[in-house]
Design brief:
This protein has about 425 residues and is an alpha+beta fold. It contains ten helices and twelve strands.
């Protein structure tokens, strides 16, 4: 999209913003106000925070005669941007019974109208360049929250004994998983990081050379059937398989299976379903992924190995098909890496750290990724609830090693 195609930008803005409302549409106002754990946020908060982003970082800078929709929203719906003032405590977002959901919808409509008006204004080149850069970041940020909305509401509904469905649809049986094949890669010096002309997040930069030793990668993700074999072989009771912190964690938390497994059933966004043994295992921590890899005589890939392999395969991320659960049929290509995108985020053994030469952006926008580069691990690919067009081979997702509420899975690696 050319920088000056304001009609196209306005259409893209409205399309992304509408998708967030569409995600919330099956939910009641009560569903939208609750927070099931400190890591998750209420749907109402997501809808307001993404709106706050456009109001704070674009309208406040560029709108003539700017006045905030509501002064208190600046604090209520700030997430972690210390550079723009105070914040409401994250674990207490579920206590925000006010504003009501209707007022949050009004807030979105107000900011949307002002954003579209701003896009239609005559701005000098410097202001328009700034507007388009911030707009692009804001839309990518909202798409991140669209994925979080679905994973957060899944966690919320899973706490309810009524076993509520987000979508009233059955989960059809997946076709038999293809045999796991080990695909060798020569490695060598390779360029890691984003180098295209489109958008990327700051943590994908700068592209830099990195040596990767020869390795092999599994052709597909680990299935529920394979993970069940690990459980039945006493995987959760064998300390030798686990990182020390992971062993302490499963013992303290009483963890014996993936997050939403309930015996031979699994809670999904379509409610409680029979556990489909052919689908990829999902909602597991780095600790569990690492223990499974040890049990299987393999290891987790590094993020450089994953990116090198994805580039070698030249697979496009595409869009998730069908229902919001991993394991939709993959295309019938002969061989190659399957399920790189659109199924589960794949844990790597790489700590989330800056690339050589990384520099965060100036000002509050620079708080976007860099300050989280500690005590987290990188995940690669995308999931069944990642918005279309949001993923790429260089994309770096990251979560703490105990996180399980995202659609996280396992791709194995080993020496050739």
């Amino acid at each position: 999209m050319h920088m000056h195609d304001t009609g196209l930008w306005a259409a893209r803005y409205q399309s992304v913003r509408q998708q967030s409302l569409a995600i919330a549409a099956p939910l009641s106002d009560e569903d939208c106000g609750a927070q099931s754990m400190p890591d998750a946020s209420p749907i109402k908060w997501h809808l307001a925070h993404t709106t706050w982003f456009f109001e704070t970082f674009i309208l406040e800078r560029l709108e003539p005669g700017f006045a905030p929709f509501h002064q208190a929203f600046r604090v209520l719906f700030n997430s972690y941007y210390n550079g723009v003032g105070d914040k409401h405590p994250r674990p207490q977002r579920g206590l925000l019974t006010r504003p009501a959901m209707a007022q949050v919808r009004d807030y979105r409509a107000n900011v949307d109208a002002r954003m579209v008006a701003l896009l239609g204004r005559a701005l000098d080149d410097a202001a328009r360049t700034q507007l388009i850069a911030l707009l692009t970041l804001g839309l990518e940020h909202e798409q991140q929250h669209q994925e979080l909305m679905l994973t957060d509401v899944k966690h919320l509904l899973a706490q309810n004994a009524l076993q509520p469905e987000y979508l009233a649809a059955g989960l059809p049986p997946a076709p038999a998983a293809a045999p796991l094949v080990w695909l060798p890669f020569e490695g060598g010096m390779c360029d890691i990081g984003y180098a295209g002309s489109g958008f990327c997040f700051d943590n994908e930069l700068p592209q830099h050379p990195q040596y990767v030793a020869p390795f092999s990668l599994a052709s597909r993700l680990v299935t529920n059937r394979e993970y069940l074999a690990f459980i039945e072989d006493g995987g959760y009771r064998n300390a030798a398989l686990w990182l020390a912190e992971g062993w302490d964690w499963i013992r303290a938390q009483g963890i014996e299976a993936p997050l939403y497994w309930r015996g031979k059933e699994e809670f999904t966004l379509m409610g409680q379903q029979a556990l489909d043994l052919e689908r990829p295992v999902t909602h597991i921590s780095l600790f569990e992924a690492d223990a499974y890899a040890n049990w299987a005589g393999a290891r987790l890939p590094t993020e450089a190995e994953w990116e090198l392999a994805a580039r070698h395969e030249a697979r496009e991320p595409g869009a998730a098909a069908g229902l919001p659960h991993p394991g939709e049929p993959v295309s019938a290509e002969e061989g190659g890496l399957q399920q790189l995108f659109c199924h589960c985020w794949q844990w790597t053994s790489s700590s989330y750290a800056p690339y050589p030469g990384f520099k965060p952006a100036a000002g509050a926008i620079g708080e976007y990724n860099g300050k989280f580069m500690v005590n987290q691990y990188v995940l690669r690919g995308s999931s069944c609830v990642t918005p279309a067009g949001h993923a790429r081979a260089s994309y770096r997702n990251f979560f703490p090693s105990s996180a399980r509420w995202q659609f996280t899975g396992i791709r194995l690696a080993r020496q050739p």
